[in-house]
C-alpha cells in the first residue's frame, strides 16, 4: 500500500470495502438520538447501506482485510468536511481565534506536556483499571442511553474508581466537544482529592492537527489515533502533533499489521480494539494474541465488548493495564428506567461493574457477583475471602 498524506486519500486509494467486507444484513438498525447540536442525523448505517448499493469497481479495495468498512469511510469523509469548515472559521476569525493561538504556541514548542493520562492508566502487572466511556449511541449498537447531563456519568465514574474517562465527541455517536468540556469542568470538583480528577480522553476520528488543538483547548488529556484510519505517515505526524500540544495518544490497532505500525512510530499507549470494523463482532482473543507482541514499557489497553468480570480478569492476567468500557456501563445506568428495584439502581450497577473489574478476584476462585458488591481493589485476600468449597 502506498502511503498517502490525507486520511481521505488513504481511504479512497485503497480502502473501499469489497463485498467480502460488508457487514451482514442481520444486524438491525436502531433509531438514533437527535444530535445535541440540533442537526438532523442520518444514520451512518443507512448511509453505509446506500453507498454499499453502488458497485463501483474503482472504489473496491485491493488490500484484502486492510480495506476500510464504509461506515468508517463515511465518517472520515464527514470529518474532512468538518476540519475544512473549522479551518475556514479560524481563518475568518483572525489571529485571536483560540485555536490559532494554540497552534502557534505548539509550533513554537511553548506547551508543557502532561502525563496525566498515562500516569492514571499505567498499572503494575496483575492490576487493571477501567477507562469508562460516555457514549450515547453507536453505529453498531444504536441508542445505548439517554444522557441529558453528562455530569451524572462523570460523577458516577469517578466515584466508582475509574482511572480515566473517555468521551465520544463525534456526531455518529451523538457526542459533542461540549460534552467533553463539561466532564473536564466537572472533574475539577475532585481537585485536592485522592485520586484527583480523572483525565479525559477525546474519543473521535482525528485526521488533522487542528482537532488535537481543539481537544487540548477543551481540556482533554489524551486523544485517540486510529491506525486503520490514518496509515503510517499520517499517524506519525499526528503523534508528533499530539506531543507538541502537550497531550498523549491512545493508538488503536485491530490486528498484527496495525500493531507493527503503532510500534514503528513509537506509540507509548496502544489499544487493541476487539471489535472487527467490518462485521462489528467482538473477539477478545484478538487482544489475547496481540498482547504477546507488545514491547516492554508500552501501556496495553483492551477496547470494546468487555462485558464479563471474568473477561476483565483474564485480560488483566494477560498483561493489559486498562480496559476501555462503554456500552456495558451506559446500559447498566439505564436499568432504573426499566422498572428495576432500588437495589438495582442505575447508579449501583455501573458502579459495581467498575469495582468488580478492577478488583483482585481470580478467574479460578473468585465469585464475580460478590466482587461487584464488595470488590475493593484490595488484593489477594478478596479471592481467598470468597473462596467457596
Ligand atoms: O462500548 P464498548 O463495546 O465497551 O467499546 C468501547 C470502545 O472501545 C469503543 O467505543 C471504541 C473503540 N474504538 C473506537 C473508535 C471510535 C469510536 C468508538 C470506539
TrEMBL record:
InterPro entries: Aldolase_TIM, Indole-3-glycerol_P_synth, Indole-3-glycerol_P_synth_dom, RibuloseP-bd_barrel. GO terms for cellular component: chloroplast. Its EC number is 4.1.1.48. GO terms for molecular function: indole-3-glycerol-phosphate synthase activity; phosphoribosylanthranilate isomerase activity. It catalyses: 1-(2-carboxyphenylamino)-1-deoxy-D-ribulose 5-phosphate + H(+) = (1S,2R)-1-C-(indol-3-yl)glycerol 3-phosphate + CO2 + H2O. Pathway: Amino-acid biosynthesis; L-tryptophan biosynthesis; L-tryptophan from chorismate: step 4/5. Transmembrane segments: none annotated. It holds the Pfam family IGPS. This is indole-3-glycerol-phosphate synthase.
Amino acid at each position: 500500500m502506498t502511503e498517502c498524506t490525507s486520511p481521505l486519500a488513504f481511504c479512497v486509494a485503497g480502502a473501499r470495502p469489497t463485498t467480502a467486507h460488508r457487514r451482514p444484513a442481520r444486524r438491525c438498525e436502531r433509531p438514533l438520538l437527535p444530535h445535541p447540536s440540533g442537526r438532523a442525523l442520518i444514520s451512518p448505517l443507512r448511509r453505509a447501506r446506500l453507498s454499499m448499493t453502488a458497485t463501483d469497481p474503482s472504489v473496491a479495495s485491493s488490500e484484502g482485510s486492510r480495506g476500510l468498512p464504509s461506515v468508517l469511510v463515511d465518517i472520515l469523509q464527514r470529518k474532512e468536511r468538518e476540519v475544512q469548515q473549522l479551518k475556514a472559521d479560524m481563518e475568518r476569525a483572525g489571529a485571536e481565534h483560540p485555536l490559532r493561538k494554540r497552534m502557534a504556541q505548539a509550533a513554537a514548542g511553548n506547551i508543557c506536556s502532561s502525563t496525566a493520562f498515562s500516569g492514571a492508566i499505567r498499572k503494575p502487572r496483575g492490576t487493571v483499571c477501567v477507562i469508562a466511556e460516555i457514549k450515547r449511541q453507536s453505529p453498531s449498537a444504536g441508542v445505548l442511553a439517554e444522557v441529558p447531563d453528562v455530569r451524572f456519568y462523570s460523577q458516577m465514574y469517578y466515584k466508582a474508581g475509574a482511572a480515566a474517562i473517555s468521551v465520544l465527541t463525534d456526531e455518529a455517536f451523538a457526542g459533542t466537544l461540549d460534552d467533553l468540556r463539561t466532564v473536564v469542568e466537572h472533574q475539577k470538583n475532585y481537585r485536592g482529592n485522592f485520586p484527583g480528577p480523572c483525565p479525559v480522553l477525546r474519543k473521535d476520528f482525528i485526521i488533522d492537527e487542528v482537532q488535537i488543538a481543539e481537544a487540548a483547548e477543551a481540556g482533554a488529556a489524551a486523544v485517540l489515533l486510529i491506525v486503520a484510519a490514518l496509515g503510517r505517515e499520517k499517524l506519525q505526524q499526528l503523534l508528533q502533533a499530539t506531543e507538541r500540544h502537550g497531550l498523549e495518544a491512545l493508538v488503536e490497532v485491530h490486528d498484527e499489521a496495525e500493531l507493527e505500525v503503532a510500534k514503528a512510530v513509537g506509540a507509548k499507549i496502544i489499544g487493541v480494539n476487539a471489535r472487527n470494523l467490518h462485521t462489528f463482532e467482538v473477539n477478545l482473543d484478538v487482544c489475547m494474541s496481540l498482547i504477546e507482541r507488545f514491547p516492554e514499557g508500552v501501556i496495553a489497553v483492551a477496547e470494546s465488548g468487555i462485558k464479563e468480570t471474568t473477561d476483565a480478569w483474564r485480560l488483566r492476567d494477560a498483561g493489559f493495564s486498562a480496559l476501555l468500557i462503554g456500552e456495558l456501563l451506559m446500559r447498566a445506568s439505564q436499568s432504573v428506567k426499566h422498572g428495576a428495584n432500588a437495589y438495582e439502581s442505575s447508579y449501583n450497577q455501573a458502579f459495581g461493574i467498575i469495582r468488580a473489574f478492577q478488583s483482585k478476584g481470580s478467574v479460578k476462585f473468585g465469585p464475580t457477583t460478590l466482587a461487584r458488591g464488595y470488590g475493593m481493589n484490595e488484593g489477594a485476600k478478596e479471592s481467598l475471602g470468597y473462596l467457596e468449597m
